[in-house]
Design brief:
The chain is of the alpha+beta class and about 350 residues long. The chain is built from 5 helices and 24 strands. Helices cover about 15% and strands about 35% of the residues.
Length: about 350
């Protein structure tokens, strides 16, 4: 047999790399990343970054999504200490949540003034077009936000930030490319259809969608700032919760990211729960640890706890190690519940109640 024939047969017998196999390997790599990814991001290990918008700590973003058990989140801890305002920019599509940690002031968003103070949650609703956005702080005290975004939702609305004015504290060079012109979005953004008013039962399923559109537009005129004083504390199976965004709330402008503050009394613990994961817990106050899938994870002030997204879910419980002061956790997760169900392929189960809860 000739050498050419042998080489030809060898090439024919080589296994073919199919797109299916490539996709299978991709999914296996993602599973490995989520299982081995970071679950505690320590404030002491996140550097402050003075950028053209504000002074901030970037806990999660594109630079470390491949290192965490729940990729896709944008998490920033911002701070203003020198001037009364930060930079001015736009959020095309919106969808951000900003929880006031310290200081008082107000935000002007699309010409509307929103006052805030510690414990309030500012929301940027998903509007048609842009949220033109600027913060003004009380110059007598530091001001800071815990800022959240979830990229899969942001990607779906063609999210982009356009810089309009730089922070007075920023000393770097101006990148003209970031100051996009007003007409960088095509003319489709300004197209208006004829009015569709649906009263009573929609005549068909397409009109049912237009009815939902009209209802969502009405929601955009409701609360943009959710005030701590207006949100009651509830005692439930996990402990003390103050809800800001919940699937059942209909009087607020957003519902895509759920948000609440979880308070654990001195020396106590939360309930124990099984959940798919993907939750963020930002330590507003206190110190303690979390037992996550049988492993102890210690944390302190302004650390970020990430529950990983795993097949079969994760089991977690929080413990307050301070005998004199409560722990406060700012908790967020995508509102998958309205589109994928509450079990999320892993099961949503309560395994143990908080000691304060008496059913």
């Amino acid at each position: 047999m000739s050498m050419e024939r042998q080489l030809e047969r060898t090439r024919e017998s080589e296994p073919k790399q199919t797109v299916y196999d490539e996709f299978m390997r991709f999914k296996m790599e993602r599973t490995k990343q989520r299982r081995e990814g970071k679950v505690v991001i320590r404030a002491s290990e996140v550097p402050w970054d003075e950028n053209r918008q504000a002074l901030g700590k970037w806990y999660l973003n594109i630079h470390n999504w491949n290192e965490t058990g729940a990729p896709g989140w944008t998490v920033i801890r911002s701070r203003v200490t020198k001037n009364y305002r930060i930079g001015k920019h736009t959020h095309r599509g919106g969808g951000r949540l900003l929880f006031c940690i310290e200081g008082r002031g107000y935000t002007v968003n699309n010409g509307i003034r929103m006052d805030w103070e510690p414990g309030d949650l500012e929301t940027l609703p998903v509007v048609v077009g842009e949220n033109e956005h600027e913060h003004f702080a009380d110059p007598t005290q530091p001001q800071g936000f815990y800022v959240l975004g979830f990229w899969p939702f942001m990607e779906a609305v063609a999210y982009e930030t356009r810089q309009l004015r730089e922070s007075p504290d920023f000393k770097g060079t101006t990148e003209k490319e970031l100051f996009r012109p007003d007409d960088f979005v095509n003319d489709n953004a300004r197209l208006k259809g004829y009015d569709i008013n649906v009263s009573g039962k929609p005549r068909d399923l397409l009109d049912a969608l237009f009815l939902k559109r009209n209802q969502w537009r009405d929601r955009l005129h409701q609360r943009w700032v959710i005030r701590e004083k207006d949100q009651p504390m509830e005692l439930n199976r996990m402990g003390y919760y103050r809800w800001y965004v919940h699937p059942d709330f209909t009087d607020i402008a957003v519902k895509h990211i759920l948000f609440w503050v979880h308070e654990i009394p001195p020396g106590s613990r939360s309930g124990k729960q099984k959940h798919q994961g993907g939750r963020l817990h930002f330590v507003l106050q206190g110190k303690g640890y979390t037992i996550l899938d049988g492993k102890r994870c210690d944390w302190g002030p302004e650390d970020l706890i990430v529950t990983p997204i795993n097949a079969g879910g994760c089991v977690f419980q929080h413990f307050n190690t301070d005998p004199e002061h409560p722990v406060k956790l700012a908790v967020a997760e995508p509102n998958w519940y309205d589109i994928m169900g509450v079990d999320l392929a892993a099961g949503f189960e309560q395994l143990e109640n908080a000691p304060e809860y008496k059913p």
